[in-house]
Amino acid sequence: MNFVPDTLKPPRRTTLHEELTQRLRDLIIHGELQPGMKVPERDLCEAYDVSRTPLREALKVLASEGLVLLEPNRGARVTPITQEDMDEVFPVMGALEALAGELACRNITPAELEEIRRHHAEMLAHHQAGDLAGYYAANQKIHEGILGAARNPTLAAHYRALSARVQRARYVANTTPDRWKQAVEEHVQIMAHLTARDGAKLAATLRQHLENKLRAVSQSLAHQNGTAGKARP
């Protein structure tokens, strides 16, 4: 196997560990390194012009995030996406998102709100154009903006430790036009509550947003496993 990821250049040496970790994280989130796949360490070292040591240090970070499994004397393997894992992660992320929303409504500045509005407008434009990748990118910037406006580093650290597992799940879910439309409508509500500084309503909407996403992921997993009848209602 000659695995060469789409990359422009090797990571900058000044931030080698962080950049390498993020690039590997992105490969997993975007499905280029698929669930259950053995991580091709030699190919990645050649592609990114790094030695095995920084690559394995990056894999340790991803293992702590639940994205890879480190197998003694066998290297690393991308973790599978399971219903059990989704049932564990999504409620926690929903609680973190809800708290971030409450805090953001107290602490957000006009400049931060305006920036989130710009991302929201970009997201709507991507939806209109049917650009799912662009939609996801703008969507993530909105959630990161709310997290930043919360002004709580502890919350942010826990959120980011789980975020990649939730992001990866969306590439498993079958995003139907109806679900996509529903998600956009939820984001319209999110923006309305954030603009009004209504922390209680924003928290409830963010939590429901994650619950609806979990339902879509669960249905897709059930279908892929041939157990569609067991999908969540």
UniProtKB/TrEMBL annotation:
<dbReference type="GO" id="GO:0003700">
    <property type="term" value="F:DNA-binding transcription factor activity"/>
</dbReference>
<feature type="domain" description="HTH gntR-type">
    <location>
        <begin position="14"/>
        <end position="81"/>
    </location>
</feature>
<dbReference type="GO" id="GO:0003677">
    <property type="term" value="F:DNA binding"/>
</dbReference>
<dbReference type="InterPro" id="IPR008920">
    <property type="entry name" value="TF_FadR/GntR_C"/>
</dbReference>
<dbReference type="InterPro" id="IPR036388">
    <property type="entry name" value="WH-like_DNA-bd_sf"/>
</dbReference>
<keyword id="KW-0805">Transcription regulation</keyword>
<dbReference type="InterPro" id="IPR000524">
    <property type="entry name" value="Tscrpt_reg_HTH_GntR"/>
</dbReference>
<dbReference type="InterPro" id="IPR011711">
    <property type="entry name" value="GntR_C"/>
</dbReference>
<dbReference type="Pfam" id="PF07729">
    <property type="entry name" value="FCD"/>
</dbReference>
<keyword id="KW-0238">DNA-binding</keyword>
<keyword id="KW-0804">Transcription</keyword>
<dbReference type="Pfam" id="PF00392">
    <property type="entry name" value="GntR"/>
</dbReference>
<dbReference type="InterPro" id="IPR036390">
    <property type="entry name" value="WH_DNA-bd_sf"/>
</dbReference>
<protein>
    <submittedName>
        <fullName>Transcriptional regulator, GntR family</fullName>
    </submittedName>
</protein>
